[in-house]
Design goal:
Layout lengths: L12 H17 L6 H14 L3 E5 L2 H11 L7 E5 L5 H8 L3 E5 L19 E4 L11 H10 L3 E5 L7 E2 L2 E2 L6 E5 L13 E5 L2 H10 L21 H32 L21 E4 L3 H10 L25 H9 E4 L7 H16 L1
Parallel strand pairs: 2-3, 2-4, 4-5, 5-8
Antiparallel strand pairs: 1-9, 6-7, 8-9, 10-11
The protein binds pyridoxal-5'-phosphate (PLP).
The site of pyridoxal-5'-phosphate has 14 residues, from α3 and α4.
Length: 362
């Protein structure tokens, strides 16, 4: 039996049918940029996340860059970024001409709480990343950032549908950034992203920046760019949203089965809080010193896994910064993501559990 880490081709027939129908409707309507599907997406996300504004764009990396630009961050400025995240978080900072300043994470990859030690006079913002879908403690972070005069840009690319104290990931910061990359809990059939904000002025600025600075066609107020969402991706996301909550249930059920099965294995670190509302169960990352052996063992058994992420950002070629990033580096060495997605079959979960128990019984 082959169990892929994630195979999006396995979507249920009913979902495929609805997606094809929506595609066919769009072809007939002949609207491929902007339009009702984009508006519907904005409204649905605002309702579900209780956000005042949602501004769809081309992808999550652009969302971060647009957020930085909207907040006026650029050359000469510093932005605090966790050492363990997807590379986009720091890339966006460099793309606006500012400097990412890396800070270590806790053992599970969330920005360490003493990040304010990185603050200097050039610091303009901090980017907490809700890694693997688990939220950074946002009440503390936002209070601290405010007292230090820093903007907060939430990288909620992996955390659509996580809520802390009833407030959604992405709605705590000055701007929150979402990715709808196909593998995310809410994924498009291609590239898409979104900025969230509760500030009308920022919402307007973000909209201008992603559409060549135009409030109206041929009226250019500032230098922007094209980072509009494709109508077709907005339409697919509207369909995907119909299944979002049911899919979340499936993820949580699988996560609970893993937790129950593995809780007795002393050598294994399990994701904390994955069943809580401030974790959307995007990834199930276990930690073991035997990570590479376990991964090889699972490959032989036909079970796919992934590593998020094998290299920390400060050690990547474009950044190359020497520093003490012990927790982040440790996670890169011992973290392993198990299959966790709505398309996983119950018998496959049985097999994965059995394989891991067998590995640690050896
Ligand atoms: C933490 C994080 N930030 C940013 C991004 C960028 O999103 P996108 O791939 O849509 O550009 C991703 C997505 O992979 C991510 O996981």
């Amino acid at each position: 039996m082959k169990i892929p880490f994630l195979d999006l081709g396995r979507m249920e027939a009913s979902l495929k049918h609805r997606l094809k129908e929506r595609f066919s409707d769009l072809l007939d309507a002949g609207i491929f940029s902007g339009g009702k599907e984009v508006e519907a997406l904005e409204n649905s996300v605002c309702d579900f996340l209780k956000s005042s504004f949602s501004i769809p764009c081309a992808n999550g990396t652009d969302a971060l860059e647009l957020a930085l630009r909207a907040l006026g961050i650029g050359p000469g400025d510093e932005v605090i970024v966790p050492a363990m995240t997807w590379v986009s978080t720091a890339e966006a900072v460099v793309m606006v001409g500012a400097k990412p300043v890396f800070w270590d994470t806790d053992e599970e990859g969330l920005l360490r709480k003493d990040w304010e030690k990185a603050v200097v006079s050039k610091s303009k913002a901090v980017i907490p990343v809700h890694l693997y879908g688990k939220m950074v403690e946002m009440a503390d972070l936002t209070v601290k950032a405010k007292s230090l005069g820093l903007f907060v840009i939430e990288d909620a690319a992996q955390a659509y549908g996580s809520f802390q104290n009833g407030r959604a990931a992405g709605t705590w910061g000055d701007v929150g950034c979402l990715s709808f990359y196909p593998t995310k809990n809410l994924g498009a059939l291609g590239e898409a992203g979104m900025c969230l904000t509760q500030d009308e002025f920022l919402a307007e600025k973000l909209r201008l920046l992603l559409n060549h600075g135009q409030p109206l066609r041929d009226q250019h107020e500032l230098v922007g760019r094209n980072s509009r969402i494709d109508t077709i991706q907005a339409a697919f996301l509207n369909v995907m949203l119909e299944d979002f909550e049911a899919n979340q249930q499936k993820r949580k059920t699988i996560a609970k089965r893993y937790l129950d099965a593995f809780s007795g294995i002393e050598e294994l670190g399990l994701p904390s809080g994955i069943l809580d509302s401030d974790h959307n169960a995007h990834l199930f990352v276990i930690q073991t010193e035997k990570r590479n052996e376990l991964r090889d063992f699972l490959v032989k058994k036909g079970v796919g896994t992934a590593i998020h992420y094998p290299v920390i950002l400060p050690e990547m070629k474009p950044f190359a910064i020497v520093g003490d990033f012990e927790n982040a580096r440790n996670l890169a060495n011992i973290g392993l993501s198990l299959p966790l997605n709505p398309y996983l079959r119950s018998v496959e979960v049985d097999v994965i559990i059995e394989c891991i128990l067998a590995f640690f019984r050896k």
